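#dry-run=false #mode=assembly
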Amino acid sequence: ADITIGVSIPSATHGWAGGMNWHAAEAKRRLEAANPGLKIIISASGSATEQANALEDMVSVQNIDALVILPFESDPLTDPVRRVKESGAFITVVDRGLSDPTIRNIYVAGDNPGFGRSAGQYIAKTLSDGGKVVAMRGIPTVIDDQRMDGFLAGIKGSKIELLDSKHANWNRDKAFEVMQDFLTRFPKIDAVWAADDDMALGALEAIREAGRETEMFLVGGGGAKDVVAGVRDGNSSIAVTVLYPPAMIATAIDLTAARFISNGPVEGIFNLASPLITKENAAAFYFAKSPY
Amino acid sequence: MSSSNDSIANSLDVLPALRASGINKSFGPIAVLHDIDFEVYPGEIHALLGENGAGKSTLVKILAGFEQPTSGSLAFNGAPTVWDSMRDAEENGIVLIHQELNLAGLLSVEENIFLGREIKKGLFVDHTTMRKKSRTLLDQLECRASVTARVDDLSVADQQMIEIAKATSRNANVLFLDEPTAVLTPHETKSLFKLLRRLKSEGVAIVFISHKLDEIEQIADRITVLRDGKHIDTVPAHSVTKDDMARLMVGRDLTEYFPHIPVPDKNADIVLSVQGVATDTGIVDAGFDLRRAEVLGFAGLQGAGRTALMEALIGLDPITTGTIQQNGTTVKFKTPGDAKTARIAYLTKDRKGKGLLLGNDLVHNFSLFALEKFTRFFINRKAEKAAFDAAAKQFDLRAASPKMLAGSLSGGNQQKLLLAKVLEINPDIIILDEPTRGIDVGAKSQIYGFIADLVSQGRSVIVLSSELSEIIGLSSRVAVMHEGRITGVLEGDQITEEEIMRFATGLGASTDAGKNNTTTATTVEEIS
Amino acid sequence: MIINWKAAGPLIALGALLVLGTLINGNFLSTGNMTNILTRSSFIGIIAIGATFVISSGSIDLSVGSMAAFIAGVMIMFMNTLKDLTDLMWLVVLAGVLAGAVLGMFAGWLNGILTTRGKIEAFIVTLGTMGIYRSLVTYLADGGTLSLNSQVRSMYRPVYYGDILGIPFPVIIFAAMAVLGYVVLNHTAYGRHVQSVGANEHVARYSAISTDRVKIIAFMIQGACVAMATIIYVPRLGSASSSTGVLWELEAIAAVIIGGTLLKGGYGRIGGTVAGALILTLIGNILNLTDAISNYLNGAVQGVIIIAAVFLQRGIGKKQK
Amino acid sequence: MIINWKAAGPLIALGALLVLGTLINGNFLSTGNMTNILTRSSFIGIIAIGATFVISSGSIDLSVGSMAAFIAGVMIMFMNTLKDLTDLMWLVVLAGVLAGAVLGMFAGWLNGILTTRGKIEAFIVTLGTMGIYRSLVTYLADGGTLSLNSQVRSMYRPVYYGDILGIPFPVIIFAAMAVLGYVVLNHTAYGRHVQSVGANEHVARYSAISTDRVKIIAFMIQGACVAMATIIYVPRLGSASSSTGVLWELEAIAAVIIGGTLLKGGYGRIGGTVAGALILTLIGNILNLTDAISNYLNGAVQGVIIIAAVFLQRGIGKKQK
Ligand SMILES: Nc1ncnc2c1ncn2[C@@H]1O[C@H](COP(=O)(O)OP(=O)(O)OP(=O)(O)O)[C@@H](O)[C@H]1O
Ligand SMILES: Nc1ncnc2c1ncn2[C@@H]1O[C@H](COP(=O)(O)OP(=O)(O)OP(=O)(O)O)[C@@H](O)[C@H]1O
Ligand SMILES: [Mg+2]
Ligand SMILES: [Mg+2]
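#status=ok
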């Protein structure tokens, strides 16, 4: 191959990551078919250490010309990516920025604080007379913190009372149980914010089981297709969700490939906003074939 | 009964190496030792005698610091002592060879011998020296096991020799041997006795436990007899006969030793016919016939392959070539379960490792082999318990409770439990490997009685034993093995120690009394 | 005073947690919460009943969590496919359930065969199959989530959400499995054999017990239990993904050990296992009912309670003896 | 022809993987790649050397991954604090390294004490401490990432990235630890005691060996090894978070077992452990070099290779005998 692009992403341990893996594979298929000289190597890693290993292998064995990376964590991967950069590769960072912004050539940025904020603001606006809210967080990580902080910022100044927030590990089963216990604990809940659609779906099941779906609404996040479909059809207690497109990896691969194929000097920051997905616009965010 | 307790003390005019006074020991509510006084002098071999469960092992464990007495005191070289731990005792040169083997099977011979007492060169262990010393120790015992072999790969007898070598490497002042000869052949016993006599001459105090009274006669200076946890008497060995010993132990006269077992006639049905069997465990072209209602003895030196042959026959090890016929039809036992279905039972000689679940209760152990008998869909615990009670009575099993753990039984009672377990399936063919290992004289004749009963019911018994007297006393015919082959089958008048030993050493029949005569004589001499 | 600490250990821990829960939240003892706890315990509980057999036999099965995810995935795909072939939804569900059961027993058999015939430590075999099943379900789901067709699901829902006389269906199954497990372990020849093989494999072999068979069956019981847990799991959320069942193996093993079964084999207690599963669920429930403890420390609290619960029976029990 | 399969098993697997890697990618055998593999193996390898002791002694330690994360977290916080107190960066690093070592040994000691004095199965103790350390590091990091101050880091960097005569520093440490471990296990009284405790604790006790002490020291060696691995890990990524070291325990145990050490204790092989660690790293490396296999199936490939590697020595080895 004339041009080798390495794509390093976290492995598909939960829905959103699964969607992202799928979009990466789609992009590879599409781009390789269209550009015979292009080779894309996707490597999914289960931890920051494994991802650092994968980066080393891309440099020393695969001789990549460009790297598209969605870092497992920002700080620990900064140095390994720097070493890739030192090998002369072009660097595209996706979603989570590195600690040192000078390393990257392209940054396709997700907006985690905005993700939380949109949800918070929506709830604050909908419950303008005040209301009681519980929140469901993911696995304790920086992203999770950013989303939560964004959410708190979103409801700041409103009459919303945050009853409690618990970690449900981006996991439907855990969310189901946490929600059951929230329902036991709080006689009145007006809204639930889940920092990920998988968790929203789990929580929804628990609410249905308790027969309290008319009492409260849910706000999810991520844009899982089941949730998007529900929002679109308006028949779900999940009123809205916040977009955090797993397809951003495809965008990043496209941008990186374009840099080599069209020889265009593509560099810079591409901010992906985290807009609300509502009944009105949901259809546009529905990908039938994506696993997420 | 009066005793001559102090005669040796007076004559030697030395302090006892170890003295116990007023020892009581209870396990929970069960008292097993009552007010025992005991002493052993340097340069003395003091035999401890008693029925199974009399408390011999418990007493020596207390003396060696492995158990704490409930009450009573110890004195070491005259000074009162309390062994806080076995380590404490061991540091004072008190060494105990347990009744059951205590070796780390995955480690080598040399590693076991020096375990906890490694010889070091600076920071590191000195393999070379330890191997050399191990070799010397084993050579003294005339044990040929390789010092680098894994203990698991050795025979039980060799393992026992490793235990002895381990004990002697400790430079003991007081050496306790709890039935060391139970798994040894006469030949090995002889090597052991040579060693014991040497240690004795070096001033070591030795306490020796055995149920083989002729051994006691040979080696002991004094004899202490326990019965039901009580001290019965301590006497100089030369003052008593074997019959006296037995009477002291059991409390009554022992009559007929071996029961009369009728010899089946030559045309009796052949229940088991083995032809040309070979295995990967060292058996070569083994063949024999077992008749209905007979006791077929199997004799041979240690490692001759008797156990290996039987284990292969019942499906524990694969048979590479050869055929087995049971009652005229060819059979193939792929697993011990197949043999069991064919009503063949095998009693292992390794009761601790392969016979009993030491951490389980007696009933569980008893019924394990014959469990189907008590099971329709569920286990009928009542029937199970009833069968156990019956067996316990039949085999004179002395246990505090059926709920106690098999591991807490005395050695001899474990053996009885094991016998009861394998006989519970009501087998047609019974293979007994060292059936009286660790059994006291009284119980021994009981077990011989069972064997006679089995035969009178038309069952056939194979007995493997390293006690020639047992083989000769019980068997109507004796198969002798040597290096994996059956070298001869002796009948009637041919069954003598000399003849058996000729075949066991591979010399063949004694019809030609010519050139081999001297060799034979030496071998027999060495072995008896 | 002699207390049987072995048996009492888990019960004391259970009691202590119940008191703690009551103190923390008034709703703790409500029927709703108790029902939730029991229902939730059923998954791990049922799996742990199987694990009691495997562990009693001296083995261990690390693959149960992934196996559950894999079975759930296959069941869902299978039912979704069948649904297009027939309109009889009950038939679809029944077929799915059967497929799950068969697959579970097959998976258990595979673990057993590799362990016995391959002479590979169960730890390694099941570490391997754990990775394999986890991968396969990820692959089947294309990295995402497999969701059960909603029509099938509405037929299947009662298996999780239904109840008989107010007792949720999963709880009934859990109880039935516990009774069955108890009877098999303590009142059948097989149960004795399992514990004998775990206690001393040589002795078992010399007692004409086919040790390989006993172990393989133990793994198959484990597989069947995993399948049963999965069968009631699938209708709950109607989905399976790569994150389904993660760490269930550790929870199941913890439940078994907390319950008093010895990890080295030879002795199993189904009653204790049930208590162990309840304890684990209770810890999670109580942590959810309070915000006294930083969320970040949940794992630490769990760790401390697990160690304490086992200490209650092992440490103290031993000393008493 | 008699081959010692026990010893050859891991080497054959290693050889097969090397051939496979070469076939897959021409650059596989390049110095760069080989250096990477060796360097990478050092973490798991060093931890696995400690695990060889624990497993030989008949215990198991599931806490090593979390322990590594916790030690890394504490080291980073400690160094970041010290950095404000002194300008001598080498002193800061030295103090951090020492703190890590002490903490590691302490954590090992704690596992040991709970196992021996508390009479709790090592599996449960270390499952508990695994949760505890994981929680603590999450708590310390406030749910996020603890990052080492960049000034300290530049002083510390060579410990991971430096080399002596072209041999990376971590590889040198790994080799040194392996030699040390080998000597201790095979040529000291302690090494024999460890194996005898694992083979038969009763016998060891009857040989006047203080079995508790032996086990506690084994856990402390494990702790020290975890600390050593962490000490070279910290400069690599310069951070610690709740996801640091996840599943390292399984990798370490797998390396040990692949290497031929018996899980039930009594027999340990440091050389095999080193081979086992290399095998595991190689699998990951080869999977990174090819996209012939769907990423989703990585775990399955790993699982199969692990089982196959152990089968090579256990299954075949046994049959030969
Ligand atoms: N740990 C224990 N718990 C309960 N009872 C025990 C325990 N150890 C020994 N016993 C009992 O103490 C009694 C004496 O046992 P001991 O082993 O000392 O007998 P022994 O004289 O050595 O018999 P043998 O000749 O059969 O070896 C037996 O009844 C035995 O069951
Ligand atoms: N060459 C061998 N290879 C493997 N196993 C063996 C070999 N020889 C014997 N064994 C096994 O070792 C065990 C015990 O051996 P041991 O020497 O005590 O028995 P044996 O050969 O039958 O001697 P004896 O005739 O005294 O009973 C048996 O289970 C036997 O199967
Ligand atoms: Mg005894
Ligand atoms: Mg024999």
